[in-house]
Write a structure and sequence with these properties.
With 367 residues, the protein is α/β, with parallel strands linked by helices. The chain folds into two domains: 226 residues, TIM Barrel, CATH 3.20.20; 125 residues, Lyase, Ornithine Decarboxylase, Chain A, domain 1 (Beta Barrel), CATH 2.40.37. It is built from twelve helices and 16 strands. Strands 1, 10, 11, 12, 13, 14, 15 and 16 form an eight-stranded mixed β-sheet that branches. Strands 2-3-4-5-6-7-8-9 form an eight-stranded parallel barrel, surrounded by four helices. α7 packs parallel to α8. The radius of gyration is 22 Å and the shape is globular. The two termini are 36 Å apart. The structure holds pyridoxal-5'-phosphate (PLP). Pyridoxal-5'-phosphate (PLP) binds next to α9.
């Protein structure tokens, strides 16, 4: 069966590889893992994911509800800024509500019952290659910096959340930062039930020292008598999806440029935001060099420059790798372009198109 492009293709076998590493960390360390839905909310594979993870964490009421309804298990609800209506709604189903500031905690601690309450801390250390994504950047609004205020509110809390990493694949950096947190916050942490260390650990990367990582987590949990949580987003789904496109035109302006039936701006937005090139398996293999670009009218809608084995022509298929995290959750209707369908290669090898989008979805997105 040939599926009409464009479509995102999620591969459950590749997903399973990540999930098994998460499972291993859970078993070796005792730390629970909750999926960060802001990275990946494509719920057609949640039945598989929930066998290997402990629940979800979220950035908003709607994400929290999706986690509760479609993933199940533990529902952690965090938001940078709750309204009272949000808190009333999440309190209906969330196991934990994590506030971003002392003022939100004070304002909503009664409304939030019976959920367990947590507070996000900004430990003023971080690991990130991008200022845009650095929770400890100058004037950051993400989490509480005032340790005294934290200590003063401990009676309202059952736990703390630290999220201060972004794609950290450096175990030594992780280890020394965890030591810093232990030194700085140990006296507070030992009075609590749980600590979430957030996401941004790239522990599913090939070659990452999973056993050392787990041991470090287990030692921390034991020292302070807390249940640890990790909130993997990218590391849970890394490498498990492609964006499959077709060439619709080839033009020339000093270089050959292949235009495909998808768009960076609309369908892989993070590449533009972080100024990264798309990835392609088996690229740089052949003699034919092309700029591959999207079909939106944005001049900089460019996936990257790649070498192909064969000349590209209208109808040639181009697959962009690593299209699961921060892609589908950010897709948009800019230019009214055809929205890529969502397809899944199930564990048994069968490919299922789980969602197609059409003109009515575009129309109904606005009014
Ligand atoms: C973004 C985020 C995550 C997930 O981060 P990844 O880098 O995708 O693992 C987890 N927790 C919080 C609070 C976040 O903001």
């Amino acid at each position: 069966m040939k599926i009409a492009t464009p479509y995102y293709l999620i591969d459950e076998k590749k997903l399973l590889r990540n999930l098994q590493i998460i499972q291993q960390v859970r078993q070796l360390s005792g730390a629970k893992s909750v999926l960060a839905l802001k990275c990946f909310s494509t719920w057609c594979v949640f039945d598989l994911m929930q066998k290997y993870m402990d629940g979800t964490t979220s950035s908003s009421l709607f994400e929290a509800r999706l986690g509760y309804e479609k993933f199940g298990k533990e529902t952690h609800a965090y938001c940078v800024g709750y309204s009272e209506e949000d808190v009333l709604a999440v309190a209906q189903f969330a196991d934990k509500i994590i506030f971003n500031s002392v003022s939100q905690l004070e304002r909503y601690c009664n409304t939030a019952k019976p959920a367990k309450l947590g507070l996000r801390v900004n430990p003023q250390i971080s690991y990130s290659h991008f200022d845009l994504a650095d929770p400890a950047r100058k004037n950051s609004r993400l989490g509480v910096t005032d340790k005294k205020a934290l200590a003063d509110h401990i009676s309202l809390l059952s736990g703390l959340m630290f999220h201060y990493n972004c794609e950290n694949d450096d175990f030594a950096a992780f280890s020394s930062q965890l030591d810093t947190i232990a030194d700085e916050y140990g006296d507070i942490i030992q009075q609590l039930e749980w600590v979430s260390l957030g996401g941004g650990y790239y522990f599913t990367k090939e070659g990452y020292p999973v056993e050392k990582f787990s041991k470090k987590l287990a030692e921390f949990a034991k020292t302070f008598g807390v249940q640890l949580y990790l909130e993997p987003g990218e590391s849970a789904i890394t490498g498990c999806a492609e964006l499959v496109t077709s060439v619709v035109d080839v033009v020339h302006n000093e270089m050959d440029i292949a235009i495909v039936d998808a768009s960076v701006e609309a369908h892989m937005l993070d590449l533009l935001i972080y100024r990264l090139s798309a990835k392609m398996e088996n690229d740089n293999m052949g003699d034919y060099k092309y700029i591959v670009a999207g079909r939106s009218c944005l001049a900089g809608d460019v996936f990257g420059t790649f070498q192909f084995k064969d000349q590209l022509e209208v109808g040639s298929e181009i697959r962009f790798a690593d299209a699961a995290g921060y892609t589908m959750v950010k897709k948009n209707w800019f230019n009214g372009l055809q929205m890529p369908a969502i397809a899944v290669r199930r564990l048994n090898g069968a490919i299922e198109v789980v969602r197609r989008f059409d003109y009515l979805d575009f129309m109904n997105n606005l009014s």
